Structure prediction request, 741 residues.
Amino acid sequence: MSTVTAAAGIRAPRRIRAGRIGAYALLVVGSLLVAFPLLITISYSFMAESDIITFPPPVLPKNPTLHNYEQVLQAIPIGRYLLNSFVVSTVVVIGQLITASLAAFAFSFVQFRGRTVLFFVFLSTLMIPWEATIIPNYITIRSIGWLDTYQGLAVPFMATAFGTFLLRQAFLQIPHELHDSARIDGASSFRFFRSMVLPLTRPALGTVAIYGFLSTYNQYFWPLLITNQTLMRTTQVGIAQLRFEESLRWGLVMAGVVMVALPTLALLVVGQRQLIRGLTAGAVKG
Amino acid sequence: MRRLTAFALALAMVAVACGGGGTGGGAQDLSAQAPGKDVKPATKITWWHAMSGVNGEAINRIVKSFNESGKGIEVEAIFQGTYDDLLAKLNTAIASNAAPALVQVYDIGQAYMRDSGQIIPMQAFIDRDKFDTKDFEPAVINYYKYQDRLQSMPWNASSSILFYNKDAFKEVGLDPEKPPLTFSEVADAAKKLTKKDASGQTVRFGFGPSIYGWLFEQLMATSAAPYADNGNGRDNRATKVLWNSPEAKAILSWWKAGVDGGYFYNPGIDNAGSTNAFNSGKTAMYIESTATLRNTINVAKFQVGTGLYPRPDSKPKDGGNIIGGASLYIMKSRPVEEQQAAWEFVKYAMTPAIQAQWQSDTGYYPVVKAAYDQGPSKEWSTKYPQFTTAINQIRNSPQNRATNGAVLGVMPQARQRTQKMIEAILLGQASVDAAVESAVSDMNAQIDKYNKANP
Prediction:
């Protein structure tokens, strides 16, 4: 009897361990599949053009070279482009967080006539395609003389219906009793917003921030439209400069892509810890 | 990119609707449209272009030398993304009067630019100054004419040629100095060049052109067959496309037979894919733009040969090659002083020395013939003897409406529609006749719509 239990006791963890190894193996395969485009980009960026075009296509560089990176640095002022993109994206994120959280607070905690109607009108702007607004926006920005400026690049994107919607849903999770008791304790609406709502919805704020950052960072047409000086251009426009109209050199383009993608990846790694911490904190306190 | 194209075109319709008609009749003198001869050129103008990388640097070099040439005019060259991006940006800018004085637009945008009413035809300046264009390469300059009047100045011109792998030719016992010329010769050579491994897998195809509308346009031209009516849209605006001619069907049947027979490779609608397949030795011959020639010579690990573009077995003597690329337009919305300055720059850019430098920097054709006598151009020909084929091909091309190439307001759509048509035929989704008829009726409806919107 006891031997059986002992044996079972030994076998059980082993089975768990085997299961865990299997799970990890699956996860490794899965993550390789997901990361494949990124990995092949990095690999190609270290390959000479004559190696890339061989058939079958190579996976790893046979003779790794930094030549492509040197060429990118020679061809375009990528440092300046990165700086521009960071400045603009950061300003947009700050602007979006402020406007979206305040608007979402009004839509979830403040009672006023026509709130629901207004909210739906707000949401319906999500359905207007950017193609329809781009010319009026361009004319506005041009008439206030903001072409080739940071404010021209950033201001049109500082309000976001999507972010407001996301934050409103998060704010609605906060029990109304909290609001009531805060009021009873004499907290102003703003105090409640600052010391209760914002800390409790950090994961949602993080999502809005990351989403806003990446979509601004990846913008192509708007920055192309309103900038003419090389020094005011952003990264995506810069990468387009590496694409030659008639003959594409993949190694060069991939090196440019890596240089542009790395800072955002680093940001995601740093931001992710913060995000998860926020997520679990919210979950436990519920 | 396709979305941007659609966007650009949607905008185009609007701009055209507001802009008014074309240039009107015959070969009358257009000088009246140009600013007066005594207008003093502006001190600064802007030029939008779509040339990146090496070509962009070549442009900056020309602009720098112009600015330092003591003419008192400063040209600012600004890269505005791809041709499609640039056109989309131009449309936005026109709407708010922020267009530049000089702008580079791709070949298939020429009818749109003319119909927009936003340009001063280059012919106006040529007539006013009695500027001599005798030395201009006829095949290049004729591509940008409507009713024999030059609308824009050719800038980067290329053509398509046959590329072949000399090592593979030697390997299978073909003469590496004698590339095939006619459809039958290409097919025969392709059969010999196709190689299978032990398991029956094809490791090398004889011939592998991309499904690229431009190549079909070129095949029509070497067949001496017009692509559209009314003199390929050059005598008057085209009303229908002629893709259902016997010549067109012969081209498509030849292509289809090669793919079905397993000796033509079909990379799909993928120009870069067909280039890579050739450069890596997966195909032994293909057809592409001369603009890719230099890169291919530099990366390929075999000897690259070039031959004349394929043509029907009857070798029609009216057949020849069209050019492709882009040209420069002077915009009407800018003050006359700026137009004058833009013309000064265009004249400078067309001098033989600058054209020779442009050729050796980029690999495009010089627009003026005298450029070939200049140092940089001679060095280039020595370094890349394969390029001589391309020059001779354009030189020997008879000049008629078929070889001038087609102009349609909806040329980008026409190109896409032919690609869909060819793809359907090669994949066996439709017979040649059925695919051609449905493409022609689709396209004619679009042309009709465009013509009605731009009376």
